[in-house]
Amino acid sequence: MTPSDPAEPPAVSHPPLIPAAPTAADGAAPRRLHGLSPVLDVFPVARQALLPLVVLAWSFEGLGLGILVVVAALFVGYRALAWSRFSYAVVDGTLRIEHGIVQRHVREVPVTRIQQVDLRRQLRHRVAGVVAVRIDTAGGGSGAEVVLDCLSDAAALALRAELLDPRHRTEPVAAPGSLPVPVTHPPGPYADGGWMPPPPPPPGGVGFGWPGPPPGGAVPGAPAPGLYPGAGPGFPGAVPPVTGTVAGQVLARLSTRDLVISGITGSGLLAGLSIVGFVFLVLGELPDAAAEEVGGRVAALFGTVLVVAVALIVALPVFLAVAAGASILRDHGFTLVRYGNDLHVQRGLLDQREATLALHRIQAVWVLDNPVRRRLGLVSVQLQSAGSGSDVAGQVATTTIPLVRRSDLATVLAAVLPSIADPVGMPADLSDAAGPASLAHAGVSNQADVSDGSDPGAGGGLADVPDTALAAGPFAGLPVRLAAAPAAARRRSVVRFVAPVPMVALLLGLVTRSPWAALVVLLAVPAGALGLARFRALAHGITSGTVVARSGALIHRTALVPVARTQSHRVESSPFQRRLGLATLTIQVAGRGRTVALVDLYDHRCRVVGDHALGSAEARRDELAVRRRTLGLLERSAISTG
Amino acid sequence: MTSAPDAAAGAPGPAAAPASLSHPVIIGVQRLSPRVLLFWGVPWAILTLLVALGVGAVGLAADWATITIIVSVLFALGVGGLATVVLPRLRYRRWSYCVTDDRLELSHGVVVRVESSVPHFRVQHIDLRQGPLQRLAGVVDLQISTASAASDATLPGVEPERAEQIRALVLSRAEADDAV
Q: Can you tell me the mean pLDDT for A53-59?
């Protein structure tokens, strides 16, 4: 092949189709789990079997303890046998796991099929100094997830480095003469671009073993954090980035105070209710005489009404404290960083988790708030992904950012949903065939939405919005303009909430046979108010790459679906809706997660949005890319064989 | 290009073409195989018999006059029989599907009308099922699955040849990647 010969393809050295056999340094030798694994395996089992074991010990008096010890020893022995049969290794670009005492199981997972590697440290892991590694493959069904329960820190990090190493990401291609398509994996979080941490900092610095900032502050010479196009100015929280790392965009970093606020204002309050439930359960278990005595004494001291009042006053701070505590336990040190196309999440106090989530696996983003948070200007964001693999039976995995300030929401969304940063583009045919003229263009037509801080004069059409006006729209800080539901939907919302009230009153009257049941009808007033609130919250919007839908009466749920992820859609209409010309559009995304519903839209609008979700250029991007690649491979093989 | 919205609730004949029909049509709007009418009425018939039996039993237990029992049982049978004959036809009339160049569109539902749209590219697998009733009637159920558990794409009674045709068509275009 001489350079002067134009017909020959240029001389390119093809990398081998199968990576060369790894050296011993690659850890090809099969390795076992950590030695403490049999002992640590006792704890999850013991937690489930706690009650029967305690009962067993109790009933056998003196022997009970001995029996417990024997059972535990037997179990540890069995687990030790299983441990000795368990081995894992990364050989020739596959992860090979052998296990089984009687029946031998060997599983081989190509490293290229591994979607993510998560680390988890529960309390027992922390005490023993080990880590649990969870490996998500792109396969389906029950075998999609591999859990290595006990690995030492070093071994776990080495395994993760091995599995996410860019070297392994080259896909072997069968067609001869064609170039392997390298799948670029974004760099890991450490200074050399890898997934192994730098040597540990001097003692007294990093707590919990996370790769955190060294005690002295910024490492001199560390690269400045980079901003990705489309991101807003500044980081949320304005904290210095994790040093000693490659450029990553910190999307969320929550302090303890943030977590306390999140717990108090969020649904964690329900955790307090579980305590109440538990107290009642215990009280119910007491023999009747004791319960009566306790109740009688308390009532005698205070009188019943006062007791209730005192109980409520005492209970409220307890509720709040429990909720805040639960929030801290779950999300302490919450950090969400975007490296290239991966999101990296760390959280947890006693049960620490470190997970990665590829951006292209996010199926939908939910923005949630409640009345208290709306007043404080806070929301929480949930990233819904399809879980392991493309199989329908895969679990739903939700990554929750517990607290985001409304002013930072646009930045976070732009980083997590790149498609939302596209200029707002509406298909030309978004006019309504029927309905009030104010909805001729998708715009804010509902003046009553002042509670969101919207400016009532912001009507007009999305077609009028210049590309730069993506800063906080009138709807809760989203960078998208949303259209309100048609006025015909108002009556439906109100009726839906008010209609059950007289029926409930009737039922109650029939059951209790008391005229006071009629007072229940007064509930129709707050029910109507709820209906109105729900109607005001209904909103939808589209960009060239996203469909946005908001719903909910008190708790507003805004769903943002990238159209590149929609699997199918459905337009449903009940007879009541048909009479008003309305319909409901539901958009299905991969996995078993919540489907996104745009409720009570005009029928025509439903179809247009649905068509946009499935048929627009952005939605068909994957398909076109696959077609192009297939055509390219066919052409190359035709050239090489022809 | 989008066609007029399908606002008519009681359109007779095959349902009007779905409004999102903007791609070349491969299989035009079709109804299901008429042989489904042979067995769609079976659950209603069973229900009718059970209700009639129940009414009779109640009447005997409550000691109604014989004529009352007979009349009420006949009434139950009549209403049930009407339902057995009419409801499956109504349901059949509302069922239609259409295969375009890039998606499969279904339209069904008597009270709550549903129109589903599934792109070929998103199809993960297609199942053909045939229970005993379907085997007797000579039709198959075509069940199309995407990566979403909530996708509703089931054709409950098409001729086997048509089912094969649809399956070949969809699978040839379904190049859904791993990139879920």
A: 74
Band the pLDDT of A271: cuts 50, 70, 90. Answer: low
Q: Are A601 and A613 in contact (CB under 8 A)?
A: no
Determine the Cα–Cα distance for residues A391 and B124; give it in Å rounded to an integer.
9
Q: What are phi and psi of A409, to 5 degrees?
A: -60, -40
**Do residues A364 and A589 lie in contact, with contact meaning Cβ atoms separated by under 8 Å?**
yes
Interface test with A, best of B102, B104, B113, B148 (most A CBs within 10 A): B148
Query: Chain-centre distance of CA A107, in angstroms?
Result: 28
Dmax (CA) of chain A: 107
SS3 assignment, position A336: strand
Residue type, A27: G
Q: Which residues of A touch B (CB under 8 A)?
A: 113, 138, 360-361, 386, 389-390, 392, 429, 433-434, 567-575, 578-579, 581, 586, 588-592, 595, 603-604, 607-608, 610-611, 614-615, 620, 622-623, 626-627, 630
Cβ count within 10 A of residue B161: 9
Cβ contacts below 8 Å, chain A against chain B, sum to: 124
- The answer to whether the pTM exceeds 0.90 is no
CB atoms within 10 A of CB A361: 25
Structure tokens, A399: 């990554």
Buried b (16+ CB within 10 A) or exposed e, A53-82: beeebeeeeeebeeebeebeeebbeebeeb
- pLDDT score, position B175: 60
Strand, coil or helix: A213? coil
The per-residue DSSP string of A357-378 comes to: EEGGGEEEEEEEE-HHHHHHTE
Summarised one tens digit per residue, pLDDT across range A510-568 is 888 877 777 888 888 999 999 998 988 888 888 878 898 988 888 889 999 998 888 89
> Which ipTM value was assigned to this complex?
0.81
**Gap between the Cα atoms of A564 and A621, Å rounded:** 7
DSSP state, residue B49: H
Q: Nearest CA to A498 among A527, A521, A526? A: A527
Which residue type, as a one-letter code, is found at position A257? R
